[in-house]
Design brief:
The chain is α+β, with helices and mostly antiparallel strands. The chain has helices at about 15-25, 25-50, 70-80, 80-90, 90-100, 105-110, 135-155, 175-200, 210-215, 230-240; strands at about 1-5, 10-15, 55-60, 115, 125-130, 160-165. The strands form two sheets. Strands 4-5-3-6 form a four-stranded antiparallel β-sheet. Helix 2 packs across helix 8 (about 175-200) and helix 5 (about 90-100) crosses helix 7.
Length: about 240
Amino acid sequence: MENQVTNNNDEIEIDLGEIFHLILSRLGVIILSGIILGVISIIGTMLFITPQYESTTKIMVLNKQDSNTLTSADMQTSTQLTKDYAELIKSRTVLEGVIAQLNITYQQLLGKLTVDTSTDSRIVTIIVSDEDPYTASEMANAIRDMAAEHIQSVMDIEAVNVVDSANIPSEKASPSLAKNGVIGGLLGVIIAMAIVIIIYLTNDTIKVEEDVERYLGLSVLGSIPYSEKESRSKKQKSRKRR
């Protein structure tokens, strides 16, 4: 199967079957390149990327119109307002209140904070990542407490209930050695295949009779057999004469 590409009025024939067989013949080198780059990715991840730990705390906000009763309308309204609560948690007022307690800048704290609101749920999840698991837990609890006060003040809510206090994570959340290794391996395979194909496409040397017709547009009238043994013997004779 051949595909023809025209560029500057020159016709270049690309034999896809030949490329496929070429890749198969270089399969060992391609796989080795993937393994090497995968190992480099794993080592680089271990040496240069700082592990991050995630601490999670959850709150539930109920919009009560009556302190003694909770209607279905209250529950529906609370569910619809969870996204508003998420924005309030990430507001500058809340984060600056936490910054006053911790030695961290606003942009750093904002980059460490993730707020998740589940569909059809009144529960808001606050996730904080940090290289120190104890610091992550401390920041998550501080953000939760400050956000509870801010939500009550802005939304005129009676109370914000704590579903889960921030945990102290024992396992790192990122980076993933396996994931980075696989990505590096795939990238190595792709790069090696690209190099093999580029070398094939840019190599216009004459190797077989078909190349004469392909590149020069000439017909082959005859061919002279070539023997490596005869070539070596001629070279040795010429050296002796010298």
